[in-house]
Structures are given as structure tokens and as C-alpha cells.
Amino acid sequence: MRRTKAVSALSLVAGASLLLSACSGGDSGSGSTDQNGSSTDVKAMAVGKAEQGDSFKLADVKGWDGTVTVGIDDGYSGYNNNTPDTNSSYNTYILTTVLEDAFVLDGNNKVLLNKDILDSVDVTSKDPQVVTYKIKPNLKWSDDAPFDCKDFYLAWLSGSGQAKGSDGKNPFNAASTTGYDKIKTATCKDNLTFETDYSEPYLDYKGLFSGVQILPAHILEKQTGIADITKLAPNGDPAQLSKAGDFWTNKWKGFDKSIMPASGPYMIDAFDANQKAVTLVKNPKWAGGKGGPAKIVVKAMEDTKAMATALQNGEIDVAASTQPDATAAQTMKSLAPQGVVYGSAPQLTYEHLDLQFNRMFKDDALRKAFFEAVDRKPIVDKLLKEVQADAAPLNSIVFFQGEPGYTDLYSSKAGLGAEAAAKTLTDAGWTKGADGIFAKNGQRASFKITHNQNSRRSQTVEIIISQAKAAGIEVKDETDANFLKGGRVSTGDYDVALFGWSSAPFKSQSRSIYVCPNNGGDQNYQNLCDPKIDDAFNAAVKATDETVKTQSYQAADKAIADKYATIPLWQTPSMWAFKGIDRVYMQSYNGALWNAGEWEQKK
């Protein structure tokens, strides 16, 4: 989920990135590999072909009249990827080439101004903070409507958290309002100038109006009868806001070609819900680079081993998996003689176990004992080493390994062993029954770990079941194919949830996952609530000094760990392989299609 959702889940963490110099080409003819089996040329594919400095645009290369079929792990569910029940990385992986963003991430997670749609983004005042966006002239949506300031305004209005409908509630059900809620007013100075005036400093402003947030305002206006969305303020006509919010929240789910145009190089031409396949074709109104195949078919393939086999058999041209699997990795690596290039890289994604505070994990001792029972190292060794040789347990929730601010907060809490876990429960008044399972006040230490249909996650739970049983805790495996997109995660319908959060390089967007639900925790599905966490995140988000900012995020990280709320398992490596294309890089937040518009055919 993205950390602006997870799972994909919405934006990740401001990352220390290995920045590579721009290069062209990308022919992987050397045949040499790194320790993970990746082609040594893969790293050179992490930058856009026309990327320069801090700017990105699609290179104008030769396209071709053909079809590329791409396999990803899960299916498309919504054109508006910004509501709790659609907010998924897998929507982002498709929409990244359909909906344009203010800023783009390359394969090194470098934040780049999108020069295909913007001339500039400038902080035009520091106190108060004002950020001004200059939109390129003559841009069009695929239905020939202008792409302009209205579209940015709708993105703010829907994400601001400030709107009030007829019932007094916010009619825009946004997965996260972080950052947008810091914008006091947003104004279209003219059709191509968008100005945002902040109520307090917000250093992560580059994370806004990105993550496929910018939707077509002209469609909403036409469908709702609202003459001009920029005249509708958050404190404006409640009836009009209700109309706008209802359409934004509910009508852009699934696929309806008539109301879902593209601002990017490709548009969605068809969606087969049964086959979980999306067909993308060139956007005839796209003003940028003209490269890439004429058609891209993106198929959901939940079994990563089957995805690898499909590549081997020529059924797909790109296998792009965020769900590392040792057997699938071995298959992909073995295809080098067929002209297949394999790559693996750490993602801005972490796999974790969320404990639901509204159920039996209200009990502090049970949370602590479960942490102590779960030994993450054998899980990582068994499931990840083939994909990433140096994979290790992740010991932070806010920071990734190697980032400034990363501190090991979990080695002293997780994996201490069955005896330690049993002692924690015994000391707290839990008693082991005749069946070997602890109980207290008639409640057995028995619960489910729920996850989507994913063989690696099933294996993860299988190992945990054995570890927990030795400690007198009963764990059951619950697989629900729709767990991540059917509303169960976003409504907190689980004992323990096993999934991944992915995010773009802005740590402020972690806030909505861990602060109290009534204090901006839009994505706090586990119902964790601690003033220490809230205070630390709030201090970090409004910090104007980078040192203070990092220290505050560290304080939030420690406060989460001290609540025994979430067990971080690992930073998830991606794995991908491709043939017939000159260069493909699995961007850690936007997937493999982030620069599909500059792919070239490789004979």
C-alpha cells in the first residue's frame, strides 16, 4: 500500500539516494551481474534519458507500433487512487503513466520537477510560506479539455481536509490530508498560475500534487453542474461541496472511459475486471516525448512464480514484482541466455505486522510478548536472501537502513525468544492452559494474522505460527484475496495485518499512519493513539530546521516502538526482468512504467 496510502499505501520517506549521472542507451550486453544476480547495467537505467539536474521530462525517442505486456502483483481498482479503499501501489503503477504529477521520482528516488507540465515551482515567500506553480501553456487532457490551474485547485480542495458538506462532514474521503491541510488558501492567479499559501512552514511541499493526485476538474464540473471549481472554497456552499465530494469519492472508482481521461503519455483504453488487465494506449493530446510502444497491457499476476514462468514462456515482456520470491528470482536470472535482463533493488517499502488496538491487543503485555516471540532473522534469511543477498530485519518504522536518522529500535524488543515471551505473559497474570496456550480473564492468546493472497506472506505466517506456539501463543493464518482493497484494512477489520507500506521521499506522510485517528491519522487503521507520537510528528512536520526535523522524526519513531504497535520485518526489495526493450527500471514508488513513454524497442 502507499503511504499517501500502503500497500501499497501513500508518500515515502525523504531518502538518502545514490544519485547516478544521467546516461543514454542502456543496452545490457556485458553479461556481468552483481551479488544479487542483477545486471550491472541496471543501475544505469535508473535515470530518465532526458533527465537534467533537478528536472525531468520524457525523452523524445522513437516509438514503435507494438504491444508490451507487463505483469504486476495485483490489479487495478480505481482511477482516483486517493481514497482509503482504492489507495494502492498497484493503481499507482498503472496511473503513473496516465496522470501527471508536479514532481517525479527517478530510479534513485531523486525528486525532480516535472518539466513536461510545469515551467517552475518556486517558494515565492518564506514567511508566510507561499509556493507558486507555473503550468506550461497549451496542455490538454486526452479528451481535448485544457490541463490547467483548475486541476491543481481540485487536488488541493479534495485533500485539504477543510471542506464541509451539507451534513457538516468533509465530503471528500481522502486517504490522507497531510501537507494539503497546511495550505491555508489556494488561488488560481490565472489559468496557468497556481499559488498556495501555507498556515505554517512545510518543508516537504514537493510531495504535494504528486502521487497521481491531480484529477480532471472539468469532468467533475460537467458531472456535478458546478460552473467553476475554483470558486468553490472549503467553507463555501455545503450543497455544492457535497456534490463535488460525492463525485470525487465515489464516481472515479473502477473504469469508465468517458469520465477518466489522461494527462500523461498513455490513457486507459480498456479494463477487464475478470482478467484483472488494463490496456493503455497512446494519448493523442500528449505534448511530450513520443517514445514507447503503441500499446501496453498490464496484467495482475498474484503468484510471482507464475509471473516468472509467464516471462519465460513469452506471455509477458516485463515482470515487475514488488513481492520478492526466491524461486521466481532464480527463474528470472536463468533467462539471461534468452536476452532477459534481471534487476533487484531496495524499495521505499517496508513489510510489517500491524497490531489492532481495538481488539485483544489493547493488552500491553500481549503486544510485548508477541514481539518477543517473533524472530525476524530466520524469516528474512529464508524468504529474501535469493533476491537480496544482504537483506536484514528492518529496525525502524520511520527511517530506512542507511538513511540519516536510522536507529535500531527493535532488536531489543523483537525475537527475544519463547521464554522471554512466556515470562512477560506470566508476570502480567496470563496463565498457560492445558492446551499450552496462555489465557487471561477467559480470553486465550489466540488471534489471526490476515494478509492478501501472497505465497511469501503465507510462508511468513507459517514461520511465526511455530515461533509463537513455542511461547504459548496461538497464531492462525487468514488469507483474504481482497484484504488490501476490499475495505478490511482501512476499517481496521483484523487482529494483526501483514502488508507493506510504500511511500515517496517525504517522511511527513508517515504522520497520517501513526498519529491518533482523531488528530489527522487518516491512515491509522490499527487505532494506535499516543500523545508522544502525535507531538513528535507535529514538531517534525512544522520544523524549519533539518536537524530539528530529523530529531523529531526520531522521537516519533521511538514512541511508536515503545508502544509495541508495529513489527517492522524488512525493507522490501523489488525484482524485475524484461526483454525486447532497451531499458526498464523498477522505480521503488511508481513501479516499472514511470518512464514507459521513453522505452525503445530492442531488436
UniProtKB/TrEMBL annotation:
Signal peptide range: 1-22
Pfam families: SBP_bac_5
Stretches assigned to the Solute-binding protein family domain: 120-510
Gene3D superfamilies: Dipeptide-binding Protein, Domain 1, Dipeptide-binding Protein, Domain 3, Periplasmic binding protein-like II
GO biological process terms held by the UniProt record: peptide transport
Coiled coil location: none
KW Ligase (keyword) present: no
Entry's Gene Ontology molecular function annotations: peptide transmembrane transporter activity
InterPro entries assigned: SBP_5, SBP_5_dom
Keywords: Signal
Entry annotated with the keyword Signal: yes
Name of the protein described by the UniProt record: Peptide/nickel transport system substrate-binding protein
Species of the source: Amycolatopsis australiensis
